[in-house]
Write a structure and sequence with these properties.
CATH class of the largest domain: Mainly Alpha
Number of domains: 3
Radius of gyration: 25 Å
CATH architecture of the largest domain: Alpha Horseshoe
Structural class: alpha+beta
Helix content: 55-70%
Order of helices and strands: HHHHHHHHHHHEEHEEEHEHHEEEHHHEE
Distance between the termini: 57 Å
Largest sheet: 6 strands, mixed
Shape: elongated
CATH topology of the largest domain: Serine Threonine Protein Phosphatase 5, Tetratricopeptide repeat
Number of helices: 18
CATH superfamily of the largest domain: Tetratricopeptide repeat domain
Length: 406
């Protein structure tokens, strides 16, 4: 490898893409194409980076399997940054195996981290954690240690372990300072901002206040009956009851939880659960049926009793009832949560991450675009959507995973 290629590679490793381009911008040999592609990715031109990396992979000969594998890994990272979640994971796995077989542990570990990031992005935290545990952090340079700790923090956030997440970010911050790579420092800073932003709202006895992630963790470990509107579950210290697939029952339970210890008038329950504006006998009959269903579903954690005005919920073991809600609640909040990470998403990637059909996601995006909350660029399969996070609030992805069953 000649001196210019070596110098460009060192510049990229130090987070200096312009310095790398100054050395290889006019060259079209395979190593230069690969370095130019990585530099363009660091500068944010992902489309150009992808094209250069593919050209480099083709330019390397059949006997240069390690170099080709490195190009594939770089292309996978570009795909992840551009939220192309359909990028073939098998190709990345094969490239990682090639690097491991040839003793390139650092790039092989980087490939593994890309796999973990993808799993975490689509909500498969258990698999991500198992894969992360297989990596030997102690032998890695500061840059990879930073990535490792950021992933540890990301998993902890999704598990609602605020103390663990904060400790991991502190380690990530120290490692990023040792690496002296501005992009890594910025990524750690962004993670800190998300962790220090409100993660949820607590509604109790008619009052509301915002909670940080550590506050949510403390609340879930308390002796209160928590009606969790972030996931659609109701839980105490022993039992978790999911109503995510029964929105009417959850709406009734939430209305009673917000009013506890007072009761809720029947007219209010009808409006909250059914959106009824003009109430007749059929509405009241349906309310009785749904309340009976709710009473049956919640029999392990609470009782629902009729009063003169309406209904009241009484916990069995818990000392009180609180409602845990998202910081900002609006229609299509899950789609907005993904888009609020600041990256550009395709509708197919959103569908994969949300576990929904692409048509359902597209309808949600169209509704958001109609009111100016998201915007698109590109056409056809290259079309991407983006929005800006609401100032002062974390995305709802801070609380995306099901609660652990006690």
């Amino acid at each position: 490898m000649d001196s210019l290629i070596t110098a460009a590679a060192r510049a990229l490793a130090a987070g200096d893409p312009l310095g790398a381009l100054n050395r290889v911008a006019l060259r079209d040999d395979a190593p230069a194409l690969a370095l130019r592609g990585i530099a363009m990715a660091q500068l944010g031109d992902l489309a150009r980076a992808k094209a250069l990396l593919r050209s480099a992979a083709r330019a390397f000969g059949q006997n240069e399997s390690v170099a080709r594998a490195r190009c594939i890994i770089a292309e996978a990272e570009v795909a992840l940054a551009s939220r192309d979640l359909s990028w073939p994971a098998k190709a990345l796995d094969a490239a990682r195996a090639t690097l491991e077989a040839h003793g390139d542990r650092m790039n092989a570990a980087h490939a593994r981290y890309l796999e973990v990031r993808r799993l975490l992005l689509i909500g498969r935290a258990d698999e991500a954690e198992r894969m992360l545990a297989e990596l030997d952090l102690a032998s890695f340079p500061p840059a990879l240690q930073t990535v490792h700790e950021l992933l540890v923090a990301g998993i902890a956030v999704r598990r609602i372990r605020g103390t663990v997440a904060r400790a991991a970010l502190m380690r990530a911050e120290r490692a990023a300072q040792q690496a002296r790579i501005p992009a890594l420092m910025a990524e750690v800073e962004t993670a800190w901002l998300a962790l220090d932003a409100p993660a949820a709202r607590l509604i109790a006895s008619g009052e509301e206040r915002f909670l940080l992630l550590e506050d949510v963790e403390t609340l879930l470990a308390s002796d209160a009956l928590v009606i969790d509107a972030c996931r659609g579950v109701i839980r105490d210290t022993r039992t978790v009851v999911s109503l995510a697939s029964r929105p009417v029952l959850f709406a009734l339970a939430r209305a009673m939880g917000e009013a506890w210890p007072a009761d809720v008038a029947r007219d209010v329950l009808l409006a909250r659960a059914f959106g009824a504006k003009f109430i007749d006998a059929s509405h009241r009959a349906r309310l009785r049926v749904e309340v009976a269903r709710l009473r049956n579903v919640l029999r392990a954690v609470a009782d629902v009793r009729a009063t003169k005005q309406g209904f009241v919920m009484t916990p069995h073991q818990a000392k009180g009832i609180v409602v845990l809600a998202r910081p900002v609640e609006e229609e299509h909040g899950a789609v907005l949560a993904f888009l609020s990470d600041g990256e550009a998403w395709s509708s197919s990637a959103l569908a994969l991450a949300l576990g929904a059909s692409q048509r359902t996601v597209q309808r949600a995006i169209d509704s958001l675009a109609a009111v100016g909350k998201v915007q698109a660029f590109g056409r056809g399969r290259a079309r991407r959507w983006i929005t800006t996070p609401a100032a002062g609030f974390t995305t709802t992805l801070l609380l995306p995973a099901p609660l652990p069953m006690d």
